[in-house]
Write the structure tokens for this entry.
Amino acid sequence: MERKIFEDLQRKTLKCFEYFNKAPIIECFLINPLGEKQPVDEPLIVEIDTGYDGHVLISEHLYHKLKLFKFELPEEKQPIIETASHEYIRAKAAYGFLEIPSLNLKIRTQIETFEDCQEMLIGREILSNLIIILHGTLKKLCIFK
Amino acid sequence: MGVYIRGVDEKVYREFKAESVRRGLKIGEAVTEALKIWLNKHRKEENNIDMARKINNAAYRMIKGKLLRDHLGKWIAIADGRLMAVADSLEQLCKENKEIFEKYDHVLVDQVTPEERRIMRWRGRSLKIYREKH
């Protein structure tokens, strides 16, 4: 029954991504506003985090590699990240694009990082642009039409 | 101190070794010098970016009122402490002013709106755990 529901849904599915390390992910590229893409060949595997209010959080290393300091928001508009333990981190944010090649989809977004950040995740601001189903039993994240 | 490094390009290493011999340096001395140059180069780049960031943000604060009056909803680029470009979209701003983004160490980009700083919640992890992990 469950599989049948999923098969019905699958007909309306644009793309499904298998969970990676038991976590829902999206395979994507990040592009700066001049069109420079990272990574160059294989897409990034980025975890979906519904607990993150922001857009896309990336490592400070990748932020520099994408030269995002050349497309940075004014300090007054840069976000502050409040963690689960109510600590506050001053973030840096820049404009860029998130591309999901398998969907032929390019979303203009803000890309955030903070000092020594090594995380990479997609937050709720991006999810609000997509129709997504997390199929826990099949361990798949599916994006719908 | 002895260090074993994997993944060094063979051709580059051979040329490096030949050059250090030509200059009468032991390989360890030449590598130390190369590491120092590399570190200084990257630190200098970061310092330049930080300095340019401060200048551009100071300029933004000074002209913010004027931007809101004259360019509300437009996209702007501030570099070298000056308003360099105004456009209708981010794409247009970057396409028509590519040289600004290539030339300057830091560019401040914004869509002119009265919007203020946001506090974003990240419930998934705590900073404490994050710090322990790394």
